[in-house]
Amino acid sequence: DAGITQSPRHKVTETGTPVTLRCHQTENHRYMYWYRQDPGHGLRLIHYSYGVKDTDKGEVSDGYSVSRSKTEDFLLTLESATSSQTSVYFCAISEDPSPLHFGNGTRLTVT
Amino acid sequence: SQQGEEDPQALSIQEGENATMNCSYKTSINNLQWYRQNSGRGLVHLILIRSNEREKHSGRLRVTLDTSKKSSSLLITASRAADTASYFCATVGTGGGNKLTFGTGTQLKVEL
């Protein structure tokens, strides 16, 4: 899977708790992305990064923050998880303008 | 809001038949890409077509792009059971960067 590791693969957490998902790449690609996938909505972009410490918001960024302190790691944080953030989260990487390579996802359940 | 919308939402065919999926989008694009997703897995890139291209082939895949109609189609010829998956189109806008906007996908089932 193009050297992308997402952790954890599954997580169950309670409403109001902070959660951090990690994406690690070994490809040295410039761009990294966080998407969420929900039935009926396809994939929606949460945040993306175009370099170390360079990030920008996607279409569904409310309630999420990201950080990229190293080329290989892109962290997604839910400051205070809500049930609406129950979803499958995918990390992806690319070199502009080439296609995206995806990780296998993190299934997050907020109870 | 979704840039791409696939049609149909679900498609069931017999092995050996051709499968056609359509994608419509709303704004000007730099390129359009098709991805496949097997159940429980991440998306896998299939093919990319640039805005100045009209048709592209890759193995059993044929993609067309009509920028005047803001639409694209993906044809899978001689389908196999292993082609069973969800297929998504994604567009890259003309505003720079490499930010993809995905459609809602077509679920393809190929039966033996």
Total beta strands of chain A: 11
Tertiary shape of chain B: globular
Strand content of chain A: over 45%
Structural class of chain B: mainly beta
Following the backbone from N to C, one meets helices and strands of chain A in this order, namely EEEEEEEEEEE
Describe the model.
The complex is a heterodimer of chains A (111) and B (112). Chain A has 111 residues and is mostly beta strands. In chain A, 0% of the residues lie in helices and 59% in strands. Chain A has no helices and eleven strands. In chain A, the strands form two sheets. In chain A, strands 2, 4, 5, 6, 9, 10 and 11 form a seven-stranded mixed sheet that branches. The radius of gyration of chain A is 13 Å and the shape is globular. The mean pLDDT of chain A is 94. Chain B is an all-beta fold and 112 residues long. Chain B is built from no helices and eleven strands. Chain B starts with a strand and ends with a strand. The model of chain B has no long low-confidence stretch (mean pLDDT 93). Classes of the chains: A mainly beta (111), B mainly beta (112). At the A-B interface, β4, β5, β9 and β10 of A face β4, β5, β9 and β10 of B.
